[in-house]
Amino acid sequence: QVQVVESGGGLVQAGGSLRLSCTVSGTPRNDYAMGWFRQAPGKEREGVSCISWSGRGQQYAGTVAGRFTISRDTFKNTLYLQMNSLKPEDTGRYYCAISTYSNCVGSWSLTDRYHYWGQGTQVTVSS
């Protein structure tokens, strides 16, 4: 059984930093891309970032590029999202997901490209 568990969320002031982690277990293989998504109250879930199975390919939403960094440790089956210079509009529940692809294809930010999801971790940025 595949399990995806996020951690590291919390309350932070604008301009601060947080590091999210996502641990995956139960997958028979590890040649999959992974993504981070977020959802604010009353809004649709949106793609934040994607990383290829090798870690060499990365994609970012325009709203977070230059502030967020995605990375993964294949040996630990863990995905990370370093978030710097946080803004109140970054507030939301952050989800980790396993892609059906090995690389971050052009449609990486579409939720139907991912087939396993965690329960999410809440990030709140105060002004």
Give an overview of the whole structure.
By secondary structure, the protein is an all-beta fold. It is built from no helices and 11 strands. The chain has strands at 3-7, 10-13, 18-25, 34-39, 46-51, 58-60, 68-73, 78-83, 92-99, 114-117, 121-126. The strands form 2 sheets. Strands 2, 4, 5, 6, 9, 10 and 11 form a 7-stranded mixed β-sheet that branches. Strands 1-3-8-7 form a 4-stranded antiparallel β-sheet, with no helix packed on it. Strand 5 (46-51) and strand 6 form a beta hairpin. The radius of gyration is 13 Å and the shape is globular. The mean pLDDT is 96.
Descriptive keywords:
mainly beta; 4-stranded antiparallel beta sheet
At a glance:
The chain is an all-beta fold and 127 residues long. The protein is 0% helix and 49% strand.
